[in-house]
Amino acid sequence: MLLGPSGCGKSTALNCLAGLLPLTHGEIHIDSERVDTQPPERRGFGMVFQNYALFPHLTVEKNVAFGLAMRKVSREETRRRVAEAINLVKLGDHVKKLPGQLSGGQQQRVAIARAIVLEPRLVLMDEPLSNLDAKLRLEMRTEIRRIHQSLGLTTIYVTHDQEEALSMADRLVVLREGRVQQVGTPQELHDAPVNWHVADFMGYRNTLDVTVTEIEPAASGTGTRAARVDAGGIPLSVTAMDDLRPGDGGRLAIRPEDLTALGGGDQPRGGNVLDAEVSVVEYHGREFSVGVVNPAGATWHVRSLFAPEPGDAVRLTVDPRRALLFRDVDRLSPDEADLEEARA
Amino acid sequence: MTSSASTRRAAAGGRADPTRSSASLRHRLAERGVDAGLLMLVPALIFTLVLFVYPFAYGLGLTLQPTAGSQARYGGGLFANYVGFFTDPFIFDSIWITMRLALPAALFNVVAAVPVAFKLRGRFRGKRLLTTLLVLPITLGTVLTAQGLLIFAGRQGWLNRFLIDIGLIDAPLQLVMNYTGVFLSLVISGFPFSFLLISSYLSGIDPSLEAAARTLGANWFERFRRIILPLLAPGLATTFILTFVLAFSVFPSARLVGDAGGETRVMALMAYRSFAEQIDYPMASTIAIMMGFVELVVIAVVLLWRATLFKGPTGGKG
């Protein structure tokens, strides 16, 4: 799963893999076979395009059979494999229809069937769900995961949706400006992002620039350690993800669900208390999503079990283990930043 | 008394009918597209009536008023012109002569424009210059084209002199004042036209379709045959019709670079001959009407074929 903000090069990477874009330098190997010198039609990858790219003049059946026809598969086998693929994506009732007669979700299924019917050694998916509405996107997410698990085809999936990435991926690669930021399982990325860009992208929407006051000597094994920071006069207990020294500037990243409003009798967690003023309240079913303005004037997103009124003063708290402290990458010299990214 | 009662009944009936809209007549008309905006059509309507419908009807009427000469020659009373058209081989054969020019020329223009348009699809340096050069002949009148052809390809033209000088041929090639000359002129004026049309049809085909076909293992030939060509075919049919109509009504070049008495005695020339040389307006009208009829038949055949093709959107989403 390739994950990154728009313009970070993830679709480019995918198109290079498919052979639709030339490499400027470097080589691509699969199972120690060099593929970047082969034209796309010889690579034998299945690709699902963002706009599906179904052949509008061919029926669903013929769209799916196209790749088999190109491989000169016998008619009998073609029929069997097409039927199998179409059943897998649950489109049995629509085989004779043209793509234009199908809904977005059904077109998506055809595109997937067309790619997997070849049983390719690699399936490439370029933001396949981005053209669907929210409900369908959730359904198709499960569907793609189901198909993936039943066929076991190696799949490279490009998305900019971190939720989609976390729920579907076995391994995630986060890209930013054409560079790999972090590679790991969804859980690793979710709990321990390597820098604040990744953190920001993984949903740590609240950031705060702070100064380190105290830091625990590096513990063996884990890269994290407890630290105390000063956030504009407010002392906070946090978890440092980078090697920082007292006096260094750093950036704190906290997820909305970890930053909660304190009710009357609640105890602040780890002694961390932040004051803020409520500006927006949104109802999210089980809880409220509240936009607050902190004393520095920045907007934060927090969760609350009760609905505060806009204009109210609220006290926020955060578990020290869930407040991650990063080096502020932007403040490094270009060389250091490169080194940082190379290390990541 | 009775009339007021019936009015009341009608009103009650009106209320009872659930499908009847309560909106005003004006509103209901507007829903069907009838409103004051239609007045904007009036100038166009007048224009069409005065400059097309009336002359056409007049010409059609003329064909049924044969001259005394035609009646004496062909008989058939009112329909003497039509009898003459179908029985006089000198006139009737001009259909085949015109067809023999227009069909191959239109076909050539379409077939030759496809690979050129295909190659010029992408972005590259000098594309604008090349496209301009290809389209430029449209701006030249047929007369200018004909003159150019005479100078370039005539017996004493540059081409023949060059070929003789390098020893490739002994006698000059006969390239003008015959079928070849008119054909070349039709290609020069028709090719840019079909190139432009086909280019725009091609650009309407989502490039990701071809990319998809590539990833599915189709080589360039298969991609063209199975994806591009079927999606392009309706556009090719339209292009063919338009260049065919252009070529079918060929007149200046048939006279200037053709063999007006023989090989390129096209229908337009025959109509002109009746009109200007024999001062037989009714016969000239008949030939003009029959010209339109023959074109209609060809167009109808092509459109019938086109109706069997896929004509939906050619964007990626299908």
Nearest-integer average pLDDT of chain B: 86
Helix content of chain A: 25-40%
Shape of chain B: flat
SSE pattern of chain B, N- to C-terminal: HHHHHHHHHHHHHHH
> Which band does the percent of strand residues of chain A land in?
25-35%
Q: Give a count of the beta strands of chain B, DSSP E runs of length 2 or more.
A: 0
Could you name the ranges of chain A where pLDDT drops below 50 across 5 or more consecutive residues? none
Count of the separate structural domains of chain A: 2
- State the end-to-end CA separation of chain A: 17 Å
| Residue share in helix of chain B | over 70%
**Biggest protein-protein contact in the assembly:** A-B, 34 and 25 residues
Helix segment tally of chain B: 15
Q: For this structure, what is the CATH homologous superfamily of the domain at 100-307 in chain B?
A: MetI-like
Average predicted local confidence, pLDDT of chain A: 84
CATH architecture of the largest domain in chain A: 3-Layer(aba) Sandwich
**Oligomer category:** heterodimer
DSSP strand tally of chain A: 18
Classification by helices and strands of chain A: alpha/beta
3D structure, described in words:
- The complex is a heterodimer of chains A (about 350) and B (about 325).
- By secondary structure, chain A is of the alpha/beta class.
- Chain A has 2 domains: about 1-190, P-loop containing nucleotide triphosphate hydrolases (Rossmann fold), CATH 3.40.50.300; about 190-344, Nucleic acid-binding proteins (OB fold (Dihydrolipoamide Acetyltransferase, E2P), Beta Barrel), CATH 2.40.50.
- In chain A, about 30% of the residues lie in helices and about 30% in strands.
- Chain A has helices at about 10-20, 40-45, 60-70, 75-90, 105-115, 135-150, 160-170, 185-190, 195-200, 335-344, and strands at about 1-5, 30, 35, 45-50, 120-125, 155-160, 170-175, 180-185, 205-215, 225-230, 235-240, 250-255, 260, 275-285, 290-295, 300-305, 315-320, 325.
- In chain A, the strands form 4 sheets. A 6-stranded mixed β-sheet of chain A has the order 4-5-6-1-7-8, with helices on both faces. In chain A, strands 9-10-11-18-12 form a 5-stranded mixed β-barrel.
- In chain A, helix 3 packs across helix 4, helix 3 (about 60-70) packs parallel to helix 5 (about 105-115) and helix 4 crosses helix 5 (about 105-115).
- The longest helix of chain A is centred in the middle third of the chain and has 18 residues, at about 135-150.
- The two termini of chain A are about 15 Å apart.
- By secondary structure, chain B is mostly helical.
- Chain B has a domain at about 100-305: MetI-like fold (Orthogonal Bundle), CATH 1.10.3720.
- Chain B contains 15 helices and no strands.
- Chain B has helices at about 1-15, 25-30, 40-65, 70-75, 80-85, 90-120, 125-135, 140-155, 160-165, 180-205, 205-215, 220-250, 250-255, 265-275, 280-305.
- The longest helix of chain B has about 30 residues, at about 90-120.
- Chain B is flat and about 70 Å long.
- The termini of chain B are far apart.
- In chain B, about 30% of the residues are buried.
- The interface of A and B includes residues 20, 41, 51, 53 and 100 of A.
